[in-house]
Amino acid sequence: MDVSITQQILTWEAGQVICRTAVEKAEELGIRINVAVADKGGNLAAFLRMPEAFLHSIDIAIDKAYTAASFGFPTSDWEAIFTEEKMLEIGMPQRDRLVVFGGGIPIVIGDTTLGGIGVSGGSAEQDEICAQAGHAALEALAAS
């Protein structure tokens, strides 16, 4: 009987590529963000704060990455889930570190979920655009 499994872990270099690319997208959009990368266990793996980004957005970005890593779907999906499941809408937002608005996406390469990206500082839509840019850069890196 197997008593352990092999895991793939996101490298620090990959985390930095995600952060840098998300920040570059934020500069294009004219916003200031905090960007966090969490590993599959929800542990902070990389973080970058742009000068003048909102201080409260530090923890929000980290918690968006944690939420996306722990559930494996974008934080923006919670709105539709709550529409279908009223009891979840009542109970889930009370959970510590759960973020239920856009800006957090899972990091998935091939069939493997490696963690989550969380961005905070713009609108939920802008945050998600920045997170997606970071993920796209990682996909390009993985393909090379």
TrEMBL record:
Family annotation (Gene3D superfamilies): Haem-degrading domain
UniProt-listed InterPro entries: GlcG_carb_metab_protein (IPR052517), PduO/GlcC-like (IPR005624), PduO/GlcC-like_sf (IPR038084)
PANTHER family: PROTEIN GLCG, SLR1406 PROTEIN
UniProt name for this protein: Heme-binding protein
Organism: Thiolapillus brandeum
